[in-house]
Amino acid sequence: MYSTSYLLFQSLTAVALGDALGFPIQHDTRSNPFDEPVHEMVGHQTQEVPAGTWSDDTSLSIASLVSLTFGYNLHDLMTRYSQWYHFGDYTPFNYSYDIDETTKAALQRFDSGIEPKLCGGTMDSDNNNTALKRLMPLAFYLLTKNQHYVFNEATVKLIHDYTATTNRTPKTFIGSGILTNVIIRLIQNPNKYAMLRAVKEALDYYRSQDEYAAQVPFFEQLEEAHFLRQSSTKLRPSSDVIATLNAVFWCLMNSEQYNVAVSKAVNLGSDADTIGSITSMLASLLFAPVTFPESWLSKLQGRNQIKIAVSVALLSDNF
Fold first, then answer.
1. Is 274 annotated as a binding residue?
2. Does residue 319 sit within a domain?
3. What are the tens digits of pLDDT across the range 27-53?
4. Are the beta carbons of 206 and 177 closer than 8 angstroms?
5. For the whole model, what pTM was predicted?
6. According to the annotation, is 55 in a ligand binding site?
7. Is the pLDDT of residue 157 over 90?
8. Euclidean distance between CA atoms 240 and 192, whole angstroms
9. What's residue 303's pLDDT?
10. pLDDT at position 252, please?
């Protein structure tokens, strides 16, 4: 297991790299996503921001890390998200952009006085990856605070309450539980077997819970080698929580190098920034230690914000 200081900085940088690579081509609808693939940072014509600019995935991850630096406090967490939304905190250019409707609605509820863990959406349209994109700091926090970490009821409650600030559906709770457990197990033991075992560990827990058992079959393909080895043309990447996890784990299982996994992820198109960001973060752990491509790093915007957030977090007792 590598040091927390190394892995935390590497993981947050990876979040930003995958996000910035995928942001310009999110919602891409090419019939073959690997036609004219993107392998380098390009400018975001729709947002009029330069190459290497990250989106809400990284902003929310930085805001989450800063909040958790001072402890697990959902009111503080949502206050920082609100500052991002209204004032452009945790962005490279001091204004917010690329805000999904689920996050926007949750923050409007918070601003109106709703309790943080009741702010998340409960509609079918809220079965999306909004919570997944900001789980990395929580995983590091949980592992730091629980040296004998177990995926049990107490752990799951913290993950679900954190998720509920934006998403309050059974599927998003399960998706968050799976991803958080995978992050932690990869920190502890970086290999594909440990990753798949972490998926099973989470699903076994949810199978034992009456309120979630009926939703588990929607995720069971993540345990199947046949599914994870299928052709990329069979994937249906989107912002849906299940489709996002399907795409992320497919990219990881079908790659042996960090940059290969990330390139596959962003070139799937659709919700390329989030799929790219999560894949990049997990790949940086799975293939640790990694050397990020210099052509990506050199164009990455806001690198000092990442360094400062991680440095301050590591001075606390929570990381």
1. yes
2. no
3. 665 556 566 788 899 887 667 789 999
4. yes
5. 0.95
6. yes
7. yes
8. 24
9. 95
10. 96
Q: Alpha-carbon distance 169 to 175, whole Å?
A: 10
Known binding residue 210? Answer is: no
Question: Hey, what are 228's tokens?
Answer: 């994870």
Counted domains in the chain: 1
Residue 72 covered by a domain: yes
CA 159 distance to own-chain centroid: 13
* Highest-confidence segment of 5-9, 32-36, 50-54, 64-68: 64-68
- Whichever domain contains 60, its CATH number is 1.10.4080.10
Contact (CB, 8 A) for 251 and 261: yes
Q: Which residue reads 């399907």 in tokens?
A: 246
Is 75's pLDDT higher than 80?
Answer: yes
Structural domain harbouring 215: 4-314
pLDDT digits (tens, 9 = 90+) for 221-257: 999 878 888 888 788 889 999 999 999 999 999 999 9
Residue 76 marked in a binding site: no
Distance CA 178, CA 6 (A): 23
Q: What is the token pair recorded at 162?
A: 């954190």
| 56 marked among binding-site residues | yes
pLDDT in tens, 162-171: 999 999 999 9
